[in-house]
Amino acid sequence: SLVVAPATLIYNWQDEIKKFSKKLKTVCITGNIAQRKKLIESIPEYDVVITSYDYIRRDYELYKDYQFYYFILDEAHHLKNAWWKSLFELKNEINPKIVALTATPPFDVSPNEWKRYIDLNGAVDTEISVPELMKEKDLCPHQDLVFFTFPSEVEKKEIENIQAKSLKFFNQISNDQLILSALQNHDIYINPENYL
To answer: Which residues are within 8 A (CB) of 46 and not within 5 positions of it... i.e. 6 or more apart?
Structure first.
């Protein structure tokens, strides 16, 4: 298995694997390029290889000669554009099963980003609720705190001024036939399915 995680979590993964199995041999691929090359060459000696997204981006060509049955992508919703290409190429070369872990699937991204996420990771097939994780002591509960404050008189006047200007602008453009016509005739409005 190949675990790809944020750099700050590489050694956490190794520690967690050791807690659950003393038999699985793990290696963390880190360091400078010479150190990483040497560690990558030793992959056949290990059951689980752990590295970061950034190292995969730099080193993915070196992984192509090794067979991985699983890619485990931790914090999979944080994938940056630079990482997609290398992960796709490696996935296509090796053809592993993908296990994508995320607490927050990127449901609110652009359609293209969502398609890329699904193409790499597959559909979201299992969701574990927060109460389940807390019951198992796998997730710390947290509390969001909201503090309410009232604006000063000067701030209140500024807010009212901005709101008045916004309303005036909205009224102007909502009555501008040229803008309305341009919007109504725009391809994204006429054929929205082409932009999904």
So the answer is: 25, 26, 27
